[in-house]
């Protein structure tokens, strides 16, 4: 039997949401801090500046990828918290594990930007997408098993959250496997998956209107 303290710990979801918002904000800020402008001492012409900016392409691509990744995971976590009636000690620690994986994204982003042609760098980046996805799935499965989800949450919503995570992670994994063709092909596939989850709902809503 859990102790009284363990039963009362982590009940406040608002504090968890506030902590999550802060960590996501810091992670997004760290991403942009890793973007470096060309050194003025090395630029002597307009064409030289354009060439230097073009050379920063991998940094801009990985920045955009990771910003989208963070946005998707932030929205996913908030969706779950909005449908959970109250917190629990174990649920809190699952989300802390999720946030731990989120804090690593600036590192894996920088690694991929510096070694964008290497499969190992892309593999580390993909694992950094897999980990928070797995934690979110675990979170929802735990909340379902322990009856923490709000009673008025429709069954189709409960199933939809799990389905979305599984499909997204399957698509990310398929994109990562494409690195055996070329890392650029893999990166393009991952970006397309991200754009689908970031933009497709809005496009479908416009079509309905």
Helices and strands, with pairings:
Layout: H1 4-8, H2 13-33, H3 46-55, H4 57-82, H5 89-103, H6 105-114, H7 119-145, H8 155-177, H9 183-208
Could you walk me through the main structural features you see in this protein, from its secondary elements to its overall organization?
With 209 residues, the protein is mainly α. The chain has one domain (4-208). It is 78% helix and 0% strand. The chain contains nine helices and no strands. The chain has helices at 4-8, 13-33, 46-55, 57-82, 89-103, 105-114, 119-145, 155-177, 183-208. Helix 2 runs parallel beside helix 5 (89-103), helix 4 (57-82) packs antiparallel against helix 6 and helix 4 (57-82) packs across helix 9 (183-208). The protein is elongated and about 65 Å long. It starts with a helix and ends with a helix. The mean pLDDT is 87.
Given as residue ranges, the uncertain stretches (5+ residues, pLDDT < 50) are: none
Helix content: over 70%
Q: Structural class of the secondary structure composition? A: mainly alpha
Q: Summarize the main sheet.
A: none
Q: Using DSSP, what is the number of strands?
A: 0
Using only C-alpha atoms, the radius of gyration works out to: 20 Å
Strand content: under 5%
The domain count comes to 1
Total number of helices: 9
Key descriptive features of the protein:
209 residues, mainly alpha, elongated
Short description:
With 209 residues, the protein is mainly α. Helices cover 78% and strands 0% of the residues.
